[in-house]
Every structure is written in C-alpha cells, then in structure tokens.
Write a structure and sequence with these properties.
Elements lengths: L1 E3 H11 E5 L2 E4 L1 E6 L6 H10 L6 E3 L3 H14 L5 E6 L3 H4 L2 H10 L3 E7 L33 E5 L5 H13 L6 E7 H4 L2 E3 L8 E3 L8 H13 L3 E5 L1 H5 L3 H11 L3 E3 L14 E4 L6 H9 L2 E5 L5 H4 L10 E6 L2 H4 L5 E4 L2 H12 L6 H21 L10 H11 L5 E5 L3 H8 L8 E4 L7 H12 L5 E6 H6 L3 H7 L5 E6 L4 H9 L23 H7 L3 E5 L2 H13 L4 E6 L24 H17 L1
Helix pairs in contact: 1-2, 3-5, 3-18, 8-14, 10-14, 11-15, 16-17, 16-23
Length: 609
C-alpha cells in the first residue's frame, strides 16, 4: 500500500485495539495535535484523512495536551492511551516536562514531535537547534533520557521496525512509559510501498507474568513468620486491576494496608484493614504500624522518598518484600524480590499462605490505630466558619460534595499532602494525584484527561493559585470540547507550601508568598474568577466553607466547566501524622534560625543513619 510515512503511522495506530474489562476498544483513543511547520503538512494531512478512526484533539499548549494524554492513560489503568504530535523546536520541547511525568509514573504516551529535514536541504531549518560538534543532534534529543523508547525516523521504511517496538513498550506492564518517535518533517511526506501486515488489526491484552516459584516461596515464608506485617499498596495494584484481590487478601490474612499517593483508593478508606496514607504525607496509623512492623510487603510501588521518609521510615527494621512487575523496582531496599503481576501473585501468595492469619493482637492494634486516625481526619476536615479556611477544611468540603464514582485530581504543592492524609477514597480510580514528578500545572490538563476517560463521572480539580497560573489554558479546551470539570482554586496568594518549607529550614519568607516578593506592585494580584470566565467557564468567588459547599452544588448542576475560587490560609497545614523528610539545610549562614535548623538536621541524620 503506497502511503506517506505519516499516513502509514496514523493507519498503524488506528489498527491497534485493546481490551478494557470485557470490551474491545481502540488502543489509541485519539491524537492531540498542535500543528506547526514541522508537522502540519505531514501528520496534519494524515490525521485529517483518519478522523473517523483516530480522532484529532486540539489543545492550546503542547505540555498540557501531553499531560491530558498521560492522565487519560492513568485513568484507564494503562489499557488505553493517546498520541501527541507537535511541530519542531519549542512545540516539541514543550512536551519534555510531560515526558518526565510519564517516565517517572510509568505511564504510556506516544510523543510524535516534528524534527529537522533528514535531507538537510534547508539546513538550518526554522527552529533548528544546531550542535557544531554533532550534525545529527536536534532539540528532540532532549527526549532521550525521559523516554522508554526513542527513535528518529529518517526514512519511511524505518516505521516497519520502529512502530512495533514502540507499541511493545507502550503496552508492556514492566517497560511501560513514554515513547518518542521524532519525525523528520520531509520524511513525514515521503511515500513508500508499505506491506499490508503493518495495518492488520491487532488486539493487545494485558500481560500478567506469574512469579518465579522460588521467589514466591521465599516471600511466603517471610510473611508466614512475621508477627507484625504491613502491606504498602502502590499504583501497580490499580494498573494490574488487583484492588479487589488485595482487599480479599488483606481481610483473609489480617494484613493492614497502607497506601502510597499512586495507590490510594486501592483499598476503601473504611475497609477493616485500611490504615490510610503512609510516609511524609502519611497518617499516624500507617506510619506507626510501619515503625513497628517486622515485615513489609510493598506492591507496585517505586518507594520514593516521600513514602519511605527518606529511608528513615521504610524499611526500618522490617524485612522488605517488593512485589513488582518491574525487576528494577523489586530489587530496591535490599528487598526480597518478587517479580510478577500483582493480581496473579497475590492469588498465588494466598494459595501458599492458606488459612494463615496475623496474630490477633496485631489485628486489634490495626483497628484501634485506624479508628483513632479516622477521628483525627474528622476533626481536621470539619466544617468551620473561620475565614480564611485551611486546605484541610477545603478538602473536607470537596470530599463531602463528591459522590461514589467522582474523581479528585491534583498535583504538586501542599494540597497533595493534605489529600493523601485526609481524602476518603471509596473505590479505585476516584483519587488521581500526580506526585511522582510533582508537576505544577498538571491539575487542569490532567482533569481534562480524566474526564475524557470517565465522561459520566464528575471530576473535581483542586489546584492552588500557583498551579493555576502556571497552566490554565486547557480550561478553555474543556469548554470547547464539552468536557465539564469542577475546578476549585485555593488562593493562598503565593507558593504557600514552599514558603512553609523555607521557614522550616530556617529561611526568611522570601520570593514565595506574593507579599514577600521584592519589587511587588500593590494591587497586582489576580481575579481568578474573572479570568476563568474569560476562558468560557462559569466562575464565582466564595468567602468561606459554607459558600464553597453551596457553590459546589451549583457546579454539579451546571452544564459546563465551573470554577470556584476561595482564599485560604497559607501557613496552616495538618500536623497529625507525617514522617521525616531529608531536605538539606545550609551548613553556614548568618541567620540564627538557619544555624538552629542545621543543627536539628544533623541530629536527624544521625538518628536515621
């Protein structure tokens, strides 16, 4: 079949299928596109031909469209995904941050940036980055360290090997992550006689690798011998569709379950073995049990420093078992490695453990600590007439407004910490917080991606004023595409979270809160409600929690995206729970506060050594 390289690529993507539940669907739900001189003539023409089989979605910012694609894939548990095409130069490089988000979070997205001319006829072409020591370098080489698979297409026939390799990475549970195919703009338009097999329909089913028998037996022996075991559930539980399996496993054997940011919702908050969030942003119940545990089964988690308390909390004195589909993660922390699919491996562990249960005293302690923590959550999130309210009180109000299948979306700053501790997730997929890369600006674009994945459910986006100002363009896209969001903007007039960290390390409040910015002009702050209305959303500003709850009711009944703005206290944060986090403090400073913070830091390092 004689096609251009771009036409062949698009036709191949449209031929890929996937199974979600029991339903066969397109593997690629669409292709986000912002056209420029590097892709409009090639990819633009090819996508126009394929509108019925591969929908094209228009965005306002390349980073935002890639973030929306990533959020979509996460919300679909990596069973479906999207592609993103951009022009060369700044259009391509705008997607770099999103590639980092996908890489860290092990999420699939196909990035198709335009590239320079392979022929080098118009060399340098507009927007070309030149390296006078290497004629093969372009801006797209920046994608190499944040891609699971990277290739530059300099001839049409290279697609015969590049496309199958790309799809293999995107659909593999262990290798999953961003794939970048840099498309030389002249090659996009060049024709080749492609074989028919490239366009045959292929249905992709999630691979479920079973564990090695020796690894399984060793892990079961550790768990059987443990008097105080703890499970740490990560995002891999959700991607493996193993939430129900985990809940049965925990109830049957009496294992308490703590959750990472990515794993939150794997176990309902009121499950008898649920002990809530763990780590720096964790609650008292989970962190207490982690300190007392003699064995920890970590499932589907990278165990980054916010979860391990910079390795002071986990693994502690416990024997660590790492159940992960990726051997790289399973081998961390001197763990007993258990490589396999979470669902299959938990079933195999249950068969090996039989009717084994943890000691009654440990189960009672789990329930007592869980009950006490839930009482603390009630206090922190209770309605209050005090203005400005705390972030915790806002979390409580939104949580009460959300129904069973509604989704909360957030990323970066102080809000993810409050949500991790305090949000009560009742089912998998209803808690969507990007904290692996902690990417400010993910929130609204991510909310759009989640809404596209679950159009029948309400999506609540919680974003601070800093995140809103960093990236708000896809608010208009949500209006344009009819994908309704409910956005709550918490305005603490600056970067409140980092201001608190700045002060905790002995620094003076400086360049974070707007009031502490040198050269600030009075009266220069933002009317967020007016700005949101200018982008086509419904919007209002409220004064307190009662006003917020009433506004959320109105937003639920609205037909299009609604934004509710509320001022919050920049200094208040939930003190209950938490764990140490390694943030280095200046060794030399004229400020006494910094010297005191340094002394405390050195002492903490000694205690965690």
């Amino acid at each position: 079949m004689r096609l251009t390289a771009a036409q062949a690529l698009v036709r191949h993507l449209a031929a890929q299928r996937t199974i979600v539940g029991d339903v066969e669907l397109p593997l690629f739900a669409g292709c986000w596109a912002i056209f420029g001189h590097g892709n409009v003539a090639g990819m633009g023409e090819a996508l126009h031909q394929a509108r019925d089989t591969l929908p094209t979605l228009r965005a306002h910012n390349e980073q935002a469209m890639a973030l929306a694609a990533i959020a979509f894939a996460k919300a679909r548990n990596r069973r479906q995904m999207m592609a993103c095409t951009s022009s060369i130069g700044p259009g391509a490089m705008n997607m770099l941050t999103a590639a980092g988000v996908a890489h860290v979070n092990r999420l699939p997205v196909l990035l198709l940036p335009g590239d320079v001319f392979a022929s080098r006829r118009p060399d340098p072409v507009l927007q070309q980055v030149e390296d006078w020591g290497d004629g093969n370098v372009s801006a797209n080489d920046c994608f190499r360290p944040v891609s699971r698979y990277w290739d530059r297409i300099t001839r049409p026939e290279q697609l015969l090997t590049a496309l199958p390799r790309a799809i293999a990475v995107l659909t593999d549970p262990a290798e999953c992550g961003p794939v970048t195919l840099s498309l030389c703009q002249d090659v996009q338009t060049e024709a080749f006689d492609f074989p028919d097999w490239l366009f045959e329909t292929r249905v992709h089913r999630a691979r479920r690798p079973a564990p090695d028998a020796h690894e399984l037996a060793r892990a079961a022996a550790v768990l059987r011998a443990a008097a105080r075991p703890l499970i740490v559930a990560g995002g891999g539980v959700l991607y493996a569709d193993a939430a129900e399996t985990l809940q049965r496993f925990a109830r049957l054997h009496g294992f308490p379950v703590a959750e990472t940011q990515a794993g939150k919702g794997a176990v309902a908050w009121d499950h008898p073995m649920a002990v809530g969030a763990i780590g720096v942003t964790g609650g008292t119940a989970a962190n207490t049990l982690a300190r007392e545990a003699d064995a920890i089964l970590a499932i589907g988690t990278r165990l980054q420093d916010f979860i391990t308390g910079s390795r002071a909390l986990l693994p502690g004195g416990a024997r660590m078992i790492q159940l992960n589909v990726q051997a790289f993660d399973a081998g961390k922390h001197n763990a007993v490695a258990l490589v396999g699919d979470a669902k299959v491996t938990l079933d195999a562990l249950t068969a090996m453990l039989g009717d084994h249960q943890t000691p009654a005293g440990w189960r009672e302690r789990t329930r007592a600590l869980g009950s006490a923590w839930n009482a603390d959550v009630e206090i922190a999130t209770a309605r209050s007439a005090v203005a400005p309210p705390t972030d915790a009180q806002i979390v409580g109000a939104v949580n009460r407004a959300a129904r069973a299948n509604d989704v909360v979306v957030c990323a970066a700053g102080g809000l993810p910490g409050e949500l991790h501790k305090l949000w009560r997730a009742s089912s998998p997929g209803t808690y969507h917080v990007e904290y692996g890369f902690s990417c400010m600006g993910y929130e609204i674009a991510g909310g759009l991606g989640v809404k596209m994945a679950h159009p029948a459910d309400e999506v609540f986006v919680m974003v601070g004023d800093g995140g809103y100002l960093m990236m708000n363009s896809e608010l208009q896209t949500s209006v344009m595409l009819g994908r309704k969001l409910i956005v709550v903007v918490l305005d603490n007039r600056g970067y409140g979270c980092i201001n608190r960290l700045q002060r905790a390390t002995g620094g003076a409040s400086f360049n974070n809160l707007i009031a502490d910015v040198d050269g600030r002009v009075d009266g220069s702050w933002v009317d967020f409600a007016m700005h949101a209305r200018s982008l086509g959303a419904l919007a209002e500003q409220v004064a307190d929690v009662a006003g917020l709850e009433a506004a959320l009711t109105r937003a639920r009944g609205a037909a299009r995206t609604s934004v509710v703005v509320i001022e919050t206290d920049p200094m208040a944060t939930t003190e209950a729970g938490g764990a140490w986090w390694d943030v280095a403090v200046a060794e030399v400073s004229p400020r006494a506060e910094v010297r005191e913070a340094r002394a405390a830091y050195v002492k903490a390092l000694g205690e965690t050594a």
